[in-house]
C-alpha cells in the first residue's frame, strides 16, 4: 500500500514540477489555417492579430511585444491577441492580404476592422486595439439596428 501511495505522490508532485503553471506570460493564441476563420468570426469579439514569419528580422526585433501586449490587455474580455505564422499558413495570409512582415490587423465579428501602422510599443498597440474595438462594435451595433 505504501508503495502505491509513494508512486502516486511522485506522479502528482512531478506533474506540478514540470507543468507550465507560471501565469506571468499572457496568452497569445496561435492562429492556424484550421482555426483562423472560426476564431476571428466569434461574435462580439475583437482579434488583434500579428502576421509574421520566423525568418523576418523585424518580427524578431519585436521580441516579447505581443506577449507584453497580452499582459496589458488582460481583463479586456472582448479583445483577443493572436499570431499567424505566414510561413506555415500562407492561405490565411493571402486571404487577408498580407504582403509585408510584421503586419498587425484588428478583426471584429469576422471582418477586418483596421490595419495598424503606428509605433510598435505596448501602449500604442493597446490604445489602437481598444479604440478600434470600440469603433467596430459601434459600427456593428448600428448595422444591426438598420437590419431591424
UniProtKB/TrEMBL annotation:
Signal peptide coordinates: 1-26
Keyword Iron-sulfur among UniProt keywords: no
InterPro entries tied to this protein: PDI, Thioredoxin-like_sf, Thioredoxin_domain
Domain Thioredoxin: 20-135
GO cellular component terms, semicolon-separated: cytoplasm; endomembrane system
Signal found in the keyword field: yes
Record key words, sorted: Signal
Top-level division of the source organism's lineage: Eukaryota
Protein family (similarity comment): Belongs to the protein disulfide isomerase family.
Name the record gives this protein: Thioredoxin domain-containing protein
The organism of origin for this protein: Cinchona calisaya
Amino acid at each position: 500500500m505504501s508503495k502505491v501511495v509513494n508512486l502516486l505522490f511522485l506522479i502528482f508532485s512531478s506533474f506540478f514540477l514540470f507543468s507550465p503553471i507560471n501565469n506571468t506570460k499572457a496568452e497569445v493564441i496561435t492562429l492556424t489555417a484550421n482555426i483562423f476563420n472560426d476564431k476571428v468570426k466569434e461574435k462580439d469579439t475583437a482579434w488583434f492579430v500579428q502576421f509574421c514569419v520566423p525568418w523576418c528580422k523585424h518580427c524578431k526585433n519585436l521580441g516579447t511585444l505581443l506577449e507584453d501586449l497580452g499582459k496589458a490587455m488582460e481583463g479586456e474580455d472582448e479583445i483577443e491577441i493572436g499570431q499567424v505564422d505566414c510561413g506555415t499558413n500562407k492561405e490565411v495570409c493571402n486571404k487577408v492580404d498580407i504582403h509585408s512582415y510584421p503586419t498587425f490587423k484588428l478583426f471584429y465579428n469576422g471582418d477586418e476592422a483596421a490595419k495598424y501602422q503606428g509605433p510598435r510599443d505596448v501602449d500604442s498597440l493597446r490604445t489602437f486595439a481598444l479604440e478600434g474595438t470600440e469603433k467596430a462594435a459601434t459600427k456593428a451595433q448600428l448595422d444591426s439596428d438598420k437590419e431591424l
